[in-house]
Amino acid sequence: EVQLVESGGGLVKPGGSLRLSCAASGFTFSSYSMNWVRQAPGKGLEWVSSISSSSSYIYYADSVKGRFTISRDNAKNSLYLQMNSLRAEDTAVYYCARVLRNGMDVWGQGTTVTVSS
Amino acid sequence: SYVLTQPPSVSVAPGQTARITCGGNNIGSKSVHWYQQKPGQAPVLVVYDDSDRPSGIPERFSGSNSGNTATLTISRVEAGDEADYYCQVWDSSSDHSLWVFGGGTKLTVL
Hints:
Helix content of chain A is 0%, strand content 54%. Chain A is an all-beta fold. In chain A, the strands form 2 sheets. In chain A, strands 2, 4, 5, 6, 9, 10 and 11 form a 7-stranded mixed beta sheet that branches. Chain B is mainly beta. Chain B is globular and about 40 Å long. The interface between A and B is medium-sized, with 22 and 26 residues.
């Protein structure tokens, strides 16, 4: 079964850091680009970051550029998002998603990040 | 950056046809993807590349894209189709937001 499982969310104070992980299974992880997408409470979907299959290409939304770092370990079938200098507006459910033809065909169940003092 | 505009809500009676639009400048030149999201759940891809369906998605879900409007059509709507629906494109013309989502449309089945 193709599956993505996020972990690492939690409560963090403004200015703090958090590292999210996404474990992939059931497909050849190293063949796919991967995205992080977030959803603030009661709001819509927002793309956060993308990484190509071999990590050659990395992109960030303006809202997180310079604060978040995406990475992957193909040997461990894992995707990561290092989040630094967190702000209240980063509070959201964070999803990892597999990229297919510039859409996203497989999504994890999400992990919740709450930034609050 | 590229902007996608969706109506906040659409209502339809069971058995009828729901049409959810997604407007964008010359969106017909882009590939549009549609996602269904039920409360407390992750999004699910229901249409990709304008009109293709992933395996497991009912034929009742279809899509079209031309000019400045893409449309997700749900035929013979069922109560279980009640959800939020998002359109999405990949905008290669900007390095500010490559994967662009519409604001979402809440489909209510009356």
